[in-house]
Amino acid sequence: MTAASAPSRLSWTLVVPLLGLVTLVLTWGRDLGPVIVALAALVLAGTVLAAVHHAEVIALRVGEPYGSLVLAVAVTVIEVALIVTLMISGGPESATLARDTVFAAVMITTNGIIGLSLLLGALKYGVTLFNSEGSGAALATVATLTTLSLVFPTFTTSQQGPEFTAPQLAFAALASLALYVMFVLTQTVRHRDFFLPLTPEGDVVETDEHAPRPSGREAGTSLALLLVALVAVVGLAKVESPAIEAAVAAAGFPHSFVGVVIALLVLLPETIAAGRAALRGRIQTSLNLGFGSAMASIGLTIPVIAITSVWLDGPLLLGLGSTQMVLFAITVVVSVLTVVPGRATRLQGGVHLVLLAAFLFLATNP
C-alpha cells in the first residue's frame, strides 16, 4: 500500500470530500452550463482520489490482504453507483451499460493494472516475484465470474438475444456473490499467506515497513470521510451523466464507450495504487488490487444490477459480442501463462498492455 495517513485539519483529503458534498447539494436537480459541469467534474475526480486515499489509510490499519480488499470494495461501490444512476436516467440506450462497464473493468484490471504493475516492477527490479497459488486462484475466480455473467447470456436460448431470463439472472447473481464470498474467505482466513507480498528471496512479507500503521482514531476518521466521499461521488456521477454521454456522442464513439469511460474513471486511483506498490517491490499487492477489483466488479455489481432490473424499463443485455469474447479468451490464456510461473519480466507486462490497447481501440472502432 502507499504511504497514507489520516488527514490533518487543512489537508486536501479532508477538504475535498466535504467540497464534493457541498457541490452535490448546489448542483443536484439543476440544468448546468458547461463551466459548472467542468468544475463539478474536477471535484468528482478529486473526490474519487480522496475516497481511495482514505481506503488506503484503513488498509494500512488492517494490513494485507485486507487492504487490497478494502480498496477493491470501495472502488466497486463507486462503480455500481455510477452504473445504476446512468441506467436509471439513460433510457433504452442504457440496456448494455452494465455489460460494457463490467467487461471494461475486467479488461482494464487484468490487462491494464496487471500489465502496468509488471512492467514497472520489472523495469526497476528486473524480474518480479509473486505468489502463483494466490494469483492463480484469483484469476480462476475472475474467469469463472466473467463466463457465468457475461459469456453465457450470448448462448442461452430461453430468451432471444444476449439476455438472461429472470431465473437465469437470479442464478448468475447468486453464483457471482457466492464465488466472491468464497474467495474473500480464502484470501483473508484460510490461506491468507497465499496473498502476501514476497521479498526478492521469496520470503513472505507480513508488514509494509515503508508506511507507519495509522492509529485506530485515524482509521476511524478516514472511514467517516470515505463514506462522505462515496456519497458525493454517487451524487456527482448522476449530475455528470448527461455530460459523459454527450461527450462520447460528440467524439463519434459508440454509446457503449460510456461504460469504458466509467471504468477508466473509477479504476484510475486503483491503478495508481497498484503502480506504487509495484515500484516498492510489492507485486503481489498489485495483483491483489487488479484481480480483486475485477472480482468485485462482477461479484458485487451483477447481484445489484439483478435487483435493480426489477425497477428498470427495457431489457438488460449482458451477453458479450464475438470480438469481446475473443479478447476475453486471449486475456485468460495470457494471464494463465503470466501467473503460473510466479515470476514475470517486462515482456509479460508489455503483452498485457498491448491487449488493453487493443480493447480500447476496438471499443472506439468496433
TrEMBL record:
The organism's place on the tree of life at top rank: Bacteria
Q: According to Swiss-Prot or TrEMBL, what is its membrane topology?
A: Multi-pass membrane protein
Please indicate if the UniProt record lists Membrane as a keyword: yes
Task: Please indicate if the UniProt record lists Transmembrane helix as a keyword.
Answer: yes
Identify the residues that the record assigns to the Sodium/calcium exchanger membrane region domain, covering every copy.
34-188, 222-364
Q: Which UniProt keywords apply?
A: Membrane, Transmembrane, Transmembrane helix
The record's section on InterPro entries has: Alkaline_pH_Ca-Antiporter (IPR052946), NaCa_Exmemb (IPR004837)
Q: Which Pfam families match?
A: Na_Ca_ex
Locations listed in the record: Membrane
Task: Please list every transmembrane segment annotated in the UniProt record, as residue ranges.
Answer: 12-29, 35-54, 66-90, 102-123, 135-155, 167-185, 219-237, 243-268, 289-312, 318-340, 347-364
What is the first-listed, main subcellular location in coarse terms?
membrane
What is this protein's record name? Answer: Calcium:proton antiporter
Q: Which organism is it from?
A: Saccharothrix lopnurensis
